[in-house]
Q: What sequence folds into this?
């Protein structure tokens, strides 16, 4: 992603003149350069998808399939949530992905490509069209009968792989197009999730949903009251909102996007004040009497702690979370999602189907 490259360049300028240890030279720097490439996350994503396809069509296909159906339980005593590993990935890890996407979308709405509400209308309308048109086509061919209830199946798209393709192309895709596709994919995916929740879920626990609403109000209230501690939002968002949605039967990724929009996007110190405070603290640090050893003095330690606090106040919690979570999403969440969901099994005679007359005549 673009910001990884910018971060890598900035780190090179700041830390380039420092004395480097062997671990920096042989591990940390190559790893930072690898992760700093714009196309790296896309390459990792599609490599994971390729591994999944190979495993699903290999002699280990049964072991591969059984892996994702292992049960994983979380809780204690009578309060125990038990789901398959595949379910935890799609409702748990992917909630992290949707949370970061929600942070990005909020940032773009506040100060980016979607700041003008009119700019957001087109991708949202396109997302709705991407849901309604396939459903209408399906209903036209299946007006009644047992297959009629499947109208919601063609509505869903895969935002993860769609965005993976976009970011794989790097600078060859304009930023405005990336934002448009991101907003379109989110609108489409959330709409499809709502359809699944309200039309294809056998039962929705209204009590759990109401509890989720209470936690949502608490998150919004925390924002309005000026709470900026991301751990507090994590407790309310994961232990409250996400868990309540998970237990309600509504797709838990919706909770992730809702939680993202409650993260504060304001700073506690202005740019000018930040520069003044940092200049004062750096001057104090320069004048502080050193130890003449590698350890800092108590005075220097206090000044460094003040610098860290001022720097934290100059950055919004939204941007701090987005910056911190992007590598985890790009290099852990997305590859694991691909490994668990891209395992398409091909028939043993697939080549004969492709090269046979049925394929050439368009009937396969």
A:
């Amino acid at each position: 992603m673009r910001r990884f490259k910018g971060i890598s360049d900035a780190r090179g300028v700041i830390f380039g003149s420092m004395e480097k240890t062997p671990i920096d030279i042989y591990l940390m720097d190559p790893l930072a350069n690898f992760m700093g490439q714009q196309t790296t996350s896309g390459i990792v994503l599609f490599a994971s998808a390729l591994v999944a396809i190979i495993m699903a069509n290999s002699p280990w296909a049964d072991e591969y399939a059984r892996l994702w159906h292992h049960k994983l339980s979380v809780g204690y005593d009578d309060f125990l949530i038990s789901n398959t590993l595949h379910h935890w990935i799609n409702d748990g890890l992917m909630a992290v992905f949707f949370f970061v996407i929600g942070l990005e979308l909020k940032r773009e709405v506040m100060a980016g490509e979607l700041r003008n509400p009119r700019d957001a209308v087109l991708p949202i309308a396109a997302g709705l069209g991407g849901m309604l048109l396939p459903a209408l086509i399906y209903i036209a061919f299946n007006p009644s009968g047992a297959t009629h209830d499947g109208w919601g199946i063609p509505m869903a798209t895969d935002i993860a792989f769609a965005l993976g393709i976009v970011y794989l192309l790097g600078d060859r895709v304009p930023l405005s197009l990336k934002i448009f596709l991101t907003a379109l994919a989110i609108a489409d995916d959330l709409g499809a999730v709502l359809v699944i929740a309200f039309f294809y879920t056998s039962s929705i626990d209204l009590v759990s949903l109401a509890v989720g609403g209470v936690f949502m109000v608490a998150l919004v209230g925390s924002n309005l009251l000026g709470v900026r501690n991301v751990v507090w939002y994590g407790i309310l968002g994961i232990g409250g909102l996400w868990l309540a949605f998970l237990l309600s039967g509504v797709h838990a990724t919706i909770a992730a996007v809702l939680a993202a929009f409650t993260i504060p996007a304001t700073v506690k110190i202005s740019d000018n004040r930040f520069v003044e405070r940092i200049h004062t603290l750096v001057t104090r640090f320069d004048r502080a009497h050193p130890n003449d050893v590698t350890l800092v003095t108590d005075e220097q330690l206090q000044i460094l702690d003040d610098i860290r606090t001022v720097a934290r106040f100059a950055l919004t919690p939204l941007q701090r979370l987005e910056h911190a979570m992007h590598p985890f999403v790009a290099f852990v969440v997305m590859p694991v999602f691909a490994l668990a969901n891209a395992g398409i099994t091909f028939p043993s005679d697939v080549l004969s189907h492709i090269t046979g007359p049925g394929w050439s005549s368009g009937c396969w």
Q: What stands out?
A: The two ends are 38 Å apart (CA to CA). The chain has three domains: 1-37, 39-74+82-264+317-340, 267-315.
